[in-house]
Amino acid sequence: MYDLIIIGGSAAGCSAAIYAARRNLNFLLITADWGGEVARSGWVCNYLGFDRISGFELANIFKKQAIENKSKICENTTVEKINIINNIFEIIEKSDTEPKKWQAKSIILATGSQPRKLNLPGENELRGKGVSYCSTCDGPLYRNKRVIVIGGGNAGMESALMLKDICEKVYLIEVTDVLRGEKIYMEKIAKEKKIVLMLKTKPLKIIGENKVESIEVEINNKKQTIKTDGIFIHVGTVPNSDMAPKEIAKDKFGYISTNKLCETNLPGFYAVGDVADLPFKQISIAVGQGTTALLSVAKYLESK
Ligand SMILES: Cc1cc2nc3c(=O)[nH]c(=O)nc-3n(C[C@H](O)[C@H](O)[C@H](O)COP(=O)(O)OP(=O)(O)OC[C@H]3O[C@@H](n4cnc5c(N)ncnc54)[C@H](O)[C@@H]3O)c2cc1C
């Protein structure tokens, strides 16, 4: 049995692994891939220590550091379920054949989240080539360009307000007839000349050869094509938290409820980074949370 199993091999999980290795804990890191959303982040220009680095390269550095610190690793492995049996965690692999099982006294869940997709034709193919789910990260790439934001909630409105300072023009598309969110954002949007609000507009498909060129939408039952350089989709995120024990507390969106020590309602079970109920999702935050959780785990194990 392990003292600790870390699930997730990206910012939060690798950070926890480096600290666990340096504390000589008997631990295992299980991960489906290396780098998760970091590896898919395009250019990262806001992570301390690097002026500009590709997310893929940064993810490789995280992996290298975790391996060089002699972490015990089980890669290319997806966890399907975590059960609690007599205060011990049982981790079960997702497998069509005989699934592997492990046991641990404590868990750090660092499985991240994924952007909710619209599943439009062209969306997946042009992701990272004009289709983005993160305006904070990719907005600066569209200086003086024309962009579209899809989603009339707080995230979409925030994104449009941020992008209007960078881009030539921002179209904010919402499928219903109202924006949903904070009044202050709605008032700002209404006053802002660079933002064109398009309500009752249904996105149909994203068009482009090697990069986004336009989007087809439906307005009043009529199809229309809008030329654009970038499309920012903000229709929510989905946490990768289904495998957590059924007893765990989550918020209404499925993010795992945590306190500032990254503890959950289950003793010995910690959740960090994008899978936790944090207000902000960034690499530096996930890295810091991995550290916090590991230090909390070390205290927890000492107290046993
Ligand atoms: C397009 C885009 C651009 C971004 N740009 C930036 C940026 O410029 N700067 C910035 O700070 N942030 C950026 N972000 C946000 C940043 O990527 C996340 O905050 C960060 O990746 C969170 O790290 P994490 O370790 O919590 O999760 P993730 O990076 O999502 O990693 C999750 C890990 O868990 C593993 N995993 C998931 N499920 C399972 C399972 N069932 N079993 C085993 N392993 C599993 C995955 O394989 C992966 O290794 C961007 C996000 C996106 C989507």
TrEMBL record:
Keywords: Disulfide bond, FAD, Flavoprotein, Oxidoreductase, Redox-active center. InterPro entries: FAD/NAD-bd_sf, FAD/NAD-binding_dom, Ferredoxin-NADP_redctase_2, Pyr_nucl-diS_OxRdtase_2_AS. Residues 2-290 form the FAD/NAD(P)-binding domain. It comes from the Bacteria. The keyword Oxidoreductase applies. One of its GO terms (molecular function) is oxidoreductase activity, acting on a sulfur group of donors, NAD(P) as acceptor. The keyword Transport does not apply. Pfam families: Pyr_redox_2. This is Thioredoxin reductase (NADPH). It comes from Candidatus Berkelbacteria bacterium Licking1014_85.
